[in-house]
Amino acid sequence: MALIKTANPALSENTFRDFAGPRLGELAGASPMTLSGTVNKTGILLLCAVAGAAWTWRLFVQAHQVADIMPYLLAGTIGGFLCAMVTIFKQQWSPVTAPIYALLEGLALGGLSAVFDLRYPGIAFEAVGLTFATLFVLLLLYSSGLIKVTQKLRMGIVAATGGVMVFYLAEMVLGFFHVNYFASVNSSSPVGIGFSLVVVAIASLNLVLDFDFIEQGVASGAPKYMEWYGAFGIMVTLVWLYLEMLRLLSKVRSR
User: Does the residue 177 lie in any domain?
Assistant: First the structure.
């Protein structure tokens, strides 16, 4: 199969390379990856994330103290990142590591969402609703053929995503030295809201690349465990999209 690029670090151009061409015959005796199986695994990971989020949300609602949920926030953030790295480099472990990743991310997102919701009541549910609405609309547009993933579209989304990641990295490094050149971008000004809208659009379009990439994995005859890995890739993008939705809504609410 032709090499396909996606901005999602979990679904790189090498993800399905080993399952194409000559190796396809070697895998003929094993159960192959299917689209419906990947959808089902994605649903399981979403349930895991919701369960983890509900736990930290409940703790924060009971205490209203960030300190009480800080261990869960740190464990979810750091543990989720480490688990994601393990999953990316050990795809065969994804049936175990992908659900763990979803649970850990749920812990972090639940606590963070509760803190935002305390300041802006209802914002977390609005962000969740917009995230899932975006997912289903893009899936519908992609499956109907209204959105076609061309090489130019691919390269454009990858380049835009890389630019956003570089910007966030630079902002984090400069912030460490107490240098803030991006106050307008992080504010609730029209510039800040406009920037968040652009980033939300870029994160959303990454879902389209993920859909296409998983479809190519199914076509290449990837083994069954890659359903979990494909679902994990979708989760990585959804987590990013939800965080950007939360950030956008908080800017709009603060005006």
Answer: yes
* Stated pTM of the model: 0.88
Residues 6+ apart with CB under 8 A from 250: 116, 119, 120, 123
Neighbours of 52 (CB within 10 A): 24
Task: Count Cβ atoms within 10 A of the Cβ of residue 229 and give its class: 0-12 exposed, 13-18 middle, 19 or more buried.
Answer: buried
In a domain, 23, yes or no: no
* Cβ partners under 8 Å of residue 101, min gap 6: 45, 80, 83, 84, 87, 232, 235
Tens of pLDDT, residue by residue over 164-195, are 999 999 988 988 877 777 888 889 999 999 99
- Residues with Cβ within 8 Å of residue 72, at least 6 apart in sequence: 55, 56, 59, 107, 108, 110, 111
Range of the domain at 175: 32-253
Q: Is residue 27 part of a domain?
A: no
The domain total for the chain is 1
- State the CB neighbour count (10 A cutoff) for residue 54: 13
* Whole-angstrom distance, CA of residue 122 vs CA of residue 112: 13
* Secondary structure class of 32 (helix, strand, coil): strand
Residue 2 lies in a domain: no
